Amino acid sequence: MLRWIDVIRFTNQGNPEPDRIVRKTDEEWRTQLTDEQYRVTRQKGTERAFSSPMCSLFEPGLYACVCCDTLLFDSNEKFESGTGWPSFTQPFKPNAIAYHGDISHGMYRIETTCNTCGAHLGHVFPDGPKPNGLRYCMNAVALKKVSKHLQKAVFGGGCFWCTEAMFQQLKGVVSVESGYSGGDTVNPSYREVCTGTTGHAEVIQITFDANEISFEDLVRIHLGSHDPTLLNQQGADKGTQYRSIILTHDDEQKQTAEKVIAEMQVGYEKPIVTEIKPFQAFYKAEDKHQNYYVDNPEGRYCQMVIDPKLQKFRTLFADKLKP
């Protein structure tokens, strides 16, 4: 989760590397965009406040750059700021947005641009809601709503090295990130989470295509890929940070999780203790924890712990695996 200090660092020390770069001539942009889109995104214009119905739209979905289709924001991070422009607390990915000091109009602000194509989007301010306090104030004309079939799920069920490796195997899963959620400490480190005092669990944040795999399927696979009857423990890993947990983004996810747990309970002698909690924030873990199994297949933990779990996982959910 990005904070104001991260925005300042990017502004002063350089922006993160984008996943790709799109460059076009001015003539090509003029041909592709409407006059208003061109004025705002390529000439750093600002649309009139309260001029777009996007301000009051909060349906599930993602928002992409109108120029290059790069995913920029998730509707789960959208909030009503009362400013007259669509406002978000976080970008879709930390490297989706670039930041630049802006001294126009006799004030200092931080401009936000698409990190892929350089389109002007708006500005970011440190007066947003908790926990990170950011307000990405965007020109609606610079964004376009894309299909809501891309959604997010956040699960915890033991060490995230294991859960990440398993869910990366599934059809319909676009990406898996390891991190921390469910607690109160802002932007915790791995060391802090391991103390068990932050309230956070080791979790994975899954971006999935609902046209290929449903949230209900993911919940069933989550409960079936660890022991949901163990309290604050999975295997040799003990502590609240290893608890079984589902963090829900809305009432629909909550009701689905409750339904699946009730249905699966008949298959267990002991009660399922999986916690269902409203999602508040996801704090991405340090880089060394991302793609851990992929990057360390010969490591002792990977061979002794993850490999056997993956073999079982592939057997149980063979029909759900990527080709």
Write out key terms for the chains shown.
6-stranded antiparallel beta sheet, 323 residues, 6-stranded mixed beta sheet, 2 domains, alpha+beta, Metal Binding Protein, Guanine Nucleotide Exchange Factor, Chain A, Peptide Methionine Sulfoxide Reductase, Chain A, elongated
Cα-atom radius of gyration: 21 Å
SSE run: HHHEEEEEEEEEEHEHEHEEEHEEHH
Mean pLDDT comes to 95
Q: What's the CATH C level of the largest domain? A: Alpha Beta
Assembly of the depicted chains:
single chain
Low-confidence runs (pLDDT<50, min 5 residues)?
none
What is the CATH topology descriptor of the largest domain? Peptide Methionine Sulfoxide Reductase, Chain A
Please estimate the helix content.
Answer: 25-40%
Count of all domains: 2
CATH superfamily of the largest domain: Peptide methionine sulphoxide reductase MsrA
Distance between the termini: 32 Å
Extended strand count:
17
Q: Largest beta sheet: what is the strand line-up? A: 3-4-8-7-6-5
CATH architecture of the largest domain: 2-Layer Sandwich
Estimate what percentage of residues fall within beta strands.
15-25%
Which sheet architecture does the biggest sheet show? 6 strands, antiparallel
Q: Which word captures the global form?
A: elongated
Structural class, from helix and strand content?
A: alpha+beta
